[in-house]
Amino acid sequence: MRESSNPVFRSLPRGQGGYAQFGTGAAGAATQAVHADPYAAQQYPTQQTGVSRPLTIDDVVTKTGITLAVVTAVAVVSYLMVGANPGLMMPFAIVGGLGGFALVMIATFGRKQDNPAIVLTYGALEGLFLGAVSFLFANVVSFGGPGMIVQAIFGTIGVFVGMLVVYKTGAIRVTPKFTRMLVAAMFGVLALALVNILLAIFTGNNPLTDGGPLAIVFSLVCIALAAFMFLIDFDSADQMIRAGVPSKAAWGIALGLTVTLVWLYVEILRLLSYFNSD
Q1: Which among 37, 75, 80, 248 has the fewest CB atoms less than 10 Å away?
Q2: Range of the domain at 129
Q3: What is the rounded distance in angstroms from the CA atom of residue 4 to the CA atom of residue 54?
Q4: pLDDT by residue (tens digit) across 9-40?
């Protein structure tokens, strides 16, 4: 039974033994067992009830495109405002980062992934965060400037398209073992990141983000994990489309993909900043 490593997909619609009678597939938190969920059945009526039309790939593309458009528009405004007043950089980064994280938690644990207001508000907050962080990496901790940001954007798009091709061609199969390995690696990265933060607080050293060889390796590992995460998320979305879950589930898929894209972009930008610093 496949489960997504992206926590946003953990509560998306499923039926007894899987998505609405689609074999044994399921999208959910890889750290939790997947069981039949009466609430999901109430939240997402089946196609037979005539309440909602089934999810299509067009729904996923449209909702994801809208969400990313909001992220991009707000990020551009945020970047320009920080450029005009650098004092806004930290407030924007903190408010956007923490606010976006809080909304993802609300959407995930409150089963509100299909709420467009939450998803689009998340997109706006992440745009605020990305604009500030992009200015930080491109103009404060390095001399890469706007050109480095463009490189990070194209790098993110390239990885996304590349992994989509990998998934569609079946070059890498999404199996339970693959998912478990990815989740274990992600927990390992999270633990290392927390240790790095503690070292920075108590010793002033941050070996995983100081631009040294270890920091470069760590960034490459994070980029690889984000890339592989796309495979599991594509598979989760594909199963939901085949299962015929209601179309409003597209907002949850858009949220999950946006979370991964933001993470990937930040890690690529961080890596580029190492090569454009003094």
Answers
A1: 80
A2: 53-275
A3: 21
A4: 444 444 333 333 333 332 333 323 323 333 33
